[in-house]
Amino acid sequence: MKTCIITGASQGLGRCLAARFAAGGADLALCARNANELSQLATDLQAQYPNITVFWQRCDMSQPADIAQFMQAAIAQARHGIGALINNVGAFELNRAANDPGAELLSRMLSLNLYAAYHSVAAVLPTLLAQQSGHIFNIESIAAIDILDDCAAYSISKRALHAYTQLLRRDLASQHVRVTGVQPGAMLTRSWEGATVPPDKIIPPEEVAELVWQCYQLSDRTVVENIVVRPALP
């Protein structure tokens, strides 16, 4: 099976995505900043699924040069081409719209929540176009469609990613490259460690990963434009 590239794969949703795509038989190309966790994940998945290949590389997704180097290596090692690019890496911090006068926080949010995906697509797109196939998933957030007052910079960056995803889908629809935006609500990841929110009001990331996998499995004639996932309980 073709290679699935996943950014921010060492923990949270990225880790669940890696596990689900590996279970489905996909080769993997994984990156994250935490080399120790990423190396252990790759070792575990390779042992559990010996028929796939798992390539990994430490990458700072805020640095365009790092992104280009990782994507180039991921494409070079792909045995059967690139099946999917999952732009999962992101950052989250709380702030109000009027409390970032120098735009330092906004710049950080844009770097990881928008520009990382933009540069990743730019690096992989020529391969997808040459193949005339492939699927790009941009992991956005429910904040991309329902702006969160206490997460101003985060909401701005995710809304921008949502717009980019829509524009990219329109541009690539006639070139056999599918583009899907994923907008999950609060997921049970490290970001919520120590929170007092009841567990049944937080989405298991494994379920979001399953939705992405099922979407990827659809025929090339069908594209799911958006996957909106919310906790069942308000």
Describe the structure.
The protein has one domain (3-229): NAD(P)-binding Rossmann-like Domain (Rossmann fold, 3-Layer(aba) Sandwich), CATH 3.40.50. The protein is built from six helices and seven strands. The chain has helices spanning 12-23, 35-48, 64-77, 104-131, 152-172, 205-216; strands at 3-7, 27-32, 54-58, 82-87, 135-139, 178-184, 226-229. It has a seven-stranded parallel β-sheet with strand order 3-2-1-4-5-6-7, sandwiched between helices. It is globular. The termini are far apart. 41% of the residues are buried.
Compact description:
With 234 residues, the chain is an alpha/beta fold. It has one domain: 3-Layer(aba) Sandwich (Rossmann fold), CATH 3.40.50.720. The chain has helices at residues 12-23, 35-48, 64-77, 104-131, 152-172, 205-216; strands spanning 3-7, 27-32, 54-58, 82-87, 135-139, 178-184, 226-229.
